[in-house]
Write a structure and sequence with these properties.
The protein has 5 helices and 12 strands. It has 2 domains: about 1-95, Pseudouridine synthase I, catalytic domain, N-terminal subdomain (Alpha-Beta Plaits, 2-Layer Sandwich); about 105-265, Pseudouridine synthase I, catalytic domain, C-terminal subdomain (Alpha-Beta Plaits). It has about 270 residues and is an alpha+beta fold. The protein has helices spanning about 25-40, 75-80, 135-145, 220-230, 235-245; strands at about 1-10, 45, 55-65, 85-95, 105-115, 130, 135, 150, 165-180, 200, 205-210, 260-265.
Length: about 270
Amino acid sequence: MRYVAVISYFGARYVGWQRQLNGSSVQETLEKALSKSLGAEVSATASGRTDAGVHALAQVVHFDADTSIPTEKIPFAVNSYLPDDVSMLSCEIAPDGFNARFSAKRKTYCYKLYVSRQRRPLLEPTHEHVVLPLDMRAMRAAAAVIEGEHDFKCFEAAGSVIKNTVRTVYGVDIRIIPLSRASSVFADGAVCEETSDGIANDCVVEISVTGNGFLYNMVRIIAGTLVYCGLGKLCADDVRAAIERGDRTLAGKTLPAKGLHLVSVVY
C-alpha cells in the first residue's frame, strides 16, 4: 500500500532532507521512525530536497508499507519515535500512480526576515535579521520582474549540475507583519510596519515564492536580491538585466538557510 504524508520539521540540526554521510538528515530520521512503528524497513520519498538548515511547514512524502495500523493512526505511531523537531502531521492512502516528487505541480517557499535595529532572540532561529529599513515599493517592483517563465541562471548557486535553468515563477508575494511590541517603554503600543512612503521598519517580512521548480539556492538568492532592492543597492531594472544576461554577479547575496521554509506542495 502506498501512503502519502505531510511532514513538518525544524531543520537547524539537519544536513537537509536527503541522507548524507556528513550528518543526520530528515529522511534518515523519518525512515527510522517509520520502520520502527510499522515493523519493517520503509523508505520515504519527498516532494524535493531541502538543504541543510532549511525548515518545512508541510513537506509531502510517500512511502510503501504493509501494516494493520489504521491510516489515521499512523501519525501517532510514527511521532512516538520522532524527535521533537520532526512531526508527521497527517497520513492517507495515496491515489494510484502517486509519486511525491514527480506528481508535484508547484511548490511555495517562504523566506522570513525581520527588520529591527536590535536582535530579536525569539525570531533568530527562523528569521534573517535586517537592521536597516526596507523600501517595500522597490522590493515589490523587482518581485514583479521575477514572475513568469525565465532562464533563472542568475539565481542559481555555484555547484549545481542542472543544465536546464528555465523555470516558471507563478508569484512572488511580500507580506508585512508588525512586531508585537514597540521598542520604547513609554510608547503607546503602536508599531509602524510600513509608512506611507513604503518604508518598512520594526516588522517581519515574508517573501513567498511559488513556482513549478527551483534551482539550487534559488529562493534564498531571490530573497537576497529583493532585500538589496529594499536597501537601495539594486533596482527592478538591475534584476531584469541579471535575468536577461544570466549573470549571478548582478543579483543579490544568498541569504542564510535559517529563514527558508517549505510552505506547501500542490498536486
